[in-house]
């Protein structure tokens, strides 16, 4: 949690992080003024123990805590923010011979630590209660019942959380640096995964190649890596790693990221194998080209819902061009055919959480929420784009029998070439996903840059 990596953003972008922390202090002070608070207390979280066991589940610190303190595995710690004062960090680093405790940050190794007053906790302890009215943020259910009572604090007030969530939507220069580094590390993993696939590796071999090249343990990745060969590529969140190489190698889909100081990358690539049919190769090329066109349209003010619907229109045109569906693009979208080929949204906000907060909250003051359009319930981002937003763009096309079979049994099925569906089924599907930051006049692609090789 406190390792210093080569080209660590905390070191190479120290000035940007100082600016980031100054802006956070101002934002929290404004929130305290608006909500009549004298202090905000953040709890980093604590690991959850498996039932009837002495082992903890994989743990990551609470995201609002990580927004301040870039130590993603720091548990049982507290951050107290007060107007006009340095944040007070109660950092839990026990004397322990069973596990390696966190390293206390120093200005040389962690320049951000200069912005904090740090108290070393050797055992889990409540912070000294600040005077006045307090809000306590974190996973309160994991704390002892008397904690909230002892602090005499309001736990997770909804209006305050909405406001702080909104403050994470547009990223600072430092946050973008972390996202860039996370994207670069993930790209190394993707290229290694592709090589292992071409060499004949099984899903587990490909996963291990990814982890090795991206320099991560399985517990470090921001989400469970999806490594699907052949028909497994049609399981959107496929969660296993087969031990044996399949007899035929039609396709590989890898959806995997990396994490740098809690900031996640989320990249997907699909590749054709030696046994892939020409129509699958054309589908991969078509989805890739479609994705690039959508990215070219990104800019502040663009309605992400409209972009999602444009993805469906272009996917329908691709299906028509390949001879898979004979209807016009407009008719396919209207009749819900493209939703059966791509049931997920175009993408989402990205940051300290892979699916970052506030994707459906355009106005944090009123709390009004813009829901996805009818027929597209899985769209996670319904806002207009703003400069500084970090987002993903991930169109896909899959052969998912449980979604396509209902089409076979009604009038829509007459427009579908079922022989091509059967030919494509062993390939599973295609997803192409990049990570981007919205700029003043477009978007900066963190994934398709020369440094990543993707």
How would you characterize this protein structure?
It is an enzyme of class 3 (hydrolase). Its EC number is 3.4.13.9. Keywords: Dipeptidase, Hydrolase, Manganese, Metal-binding, Metalloprotease, Protease. Residues 1-6 have low confidence and may be disordered. The chain has 2 domains: 9-166, Creatine Amidinohydrolase, Chain A, domain 1; 173-445, Alpha-Beta Complex (Creatine Amidinohydrolase), CATH 3.90.230.10. The protein starts with 8 loop residues before the first helix and ends in a 9-residue tail after the last strand. The chain has a 6-stranded mixed β-sheet with strand order 4-3-2-1-5-6. Strands 7-8-11 form a 3-stranded antiparallel β-sheet, with helices on both faces. A 3-stranded antiparallel β-sheet has the order 12-15-16. The chain is of the alpha+beta class. The protein has helices spanning 9-12, 14-34, 63-66, 146-151, 158-166, 173-198, 203-214, 278-296, 304-321, 329-334, 337-341, 401-408, 418-424; strands at residues 39-43, 78-81, 88-92, 117-121, 134-137, 154-155, 226-229, 251-256, 259-260, 263-264, 267-272, 390-393, 396-398, 429-431, 434-438, 443-445. It is globular. Strand 15 (434-438) and strand 16 (443-445) form a beta hairpin.
């Amino acid at each position: 949690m406190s390792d210093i990596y080569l080209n660590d953003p905390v070191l190479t972008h120290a000035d940007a992080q100082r600016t980031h922390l100054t802006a956070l202090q101002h934002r929290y002070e404004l929130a305290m003024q608006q909500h009549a608070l004298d202090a905000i207390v953040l709890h980093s979280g604590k690991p959850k123990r498996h039932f009837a066991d002495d082992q903890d589940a994989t743990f990551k610190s609470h995201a609002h805590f990580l927004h301040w303190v870039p130590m993603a595995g720091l548990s049982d710690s507290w951050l107290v923010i007060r107007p006009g004062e340095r944040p007070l960090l109660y950092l839990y680093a026990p004397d322990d011979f069973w596990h390696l405790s966190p390293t206390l940050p120093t200005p040389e190794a962690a320049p951000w630590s200069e912005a904090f007053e740090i108290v070393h906790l050797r055992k889990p302890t409540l912070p000294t209660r600040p005077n006045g009215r307090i809000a306590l943020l974190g996973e309160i259910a994991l704390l002892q019942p008397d904690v909230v009572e002892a602090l005499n604090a309001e736990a997770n007030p909804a209006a305050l959380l909405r406001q702080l969530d909104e403050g994470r939507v547009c990223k600072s220069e430092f946050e973008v640096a972390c996202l860039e580094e996370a994207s670069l590390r993930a790209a190394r993993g993707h290229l290694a995964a592709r090589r292992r696939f071409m060499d004949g590796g099984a899903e587990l071999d490909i996963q291990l190649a990814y982890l090795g090249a991206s320099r991560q343990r399985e517990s470090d990745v921001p989400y469970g890596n999806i490594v699907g060969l052949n028909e497994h590529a049609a399981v959107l969140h496929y969660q296993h790693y087969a031990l044996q190489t399949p007899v035929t190698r039609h396709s590989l889909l890898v959806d995997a990221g990396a994490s740098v100081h809690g900031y996640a990358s989320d990249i997907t690539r699909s590749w054709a194998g030696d046994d892939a049919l020409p129509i699958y190769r054309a589908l991969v090329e078509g989805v890739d080209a479609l994705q690039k066109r959508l990215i070219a349209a990104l800019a502040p003010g663009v309605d992400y819902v409209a972009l999602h619907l444009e993805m469906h229109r272009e996917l329908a045109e691709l299906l028509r061009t390949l001879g898979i569906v004979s209807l016009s693009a407009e008719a396919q979208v209207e009749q819900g055919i493209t939703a059966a080929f791509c049931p997920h949204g175009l993408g989402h906000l990205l940051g300290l959480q892979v699916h970052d907060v506030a994707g459906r909250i355009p106005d944090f003051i009123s709390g009004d929420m813009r829901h996805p359009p009818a027929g597209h319930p899985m769209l996670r981002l319904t806002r207009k784009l703003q400069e500084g937003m970090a987002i993903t763009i991930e169109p896909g096309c899959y052969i998912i029998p449980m979604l396509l079979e209902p089409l076979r049994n009604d009038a829509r099925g007459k427009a579908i070439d079922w022989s091509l569906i059967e030919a494509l089924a062993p390939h599973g599907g295609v997803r192409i996903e990049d990570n981007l930051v919205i700029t003043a006049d477009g978007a900066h692609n963190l994934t398709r840059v020369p440094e990543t090789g993707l």
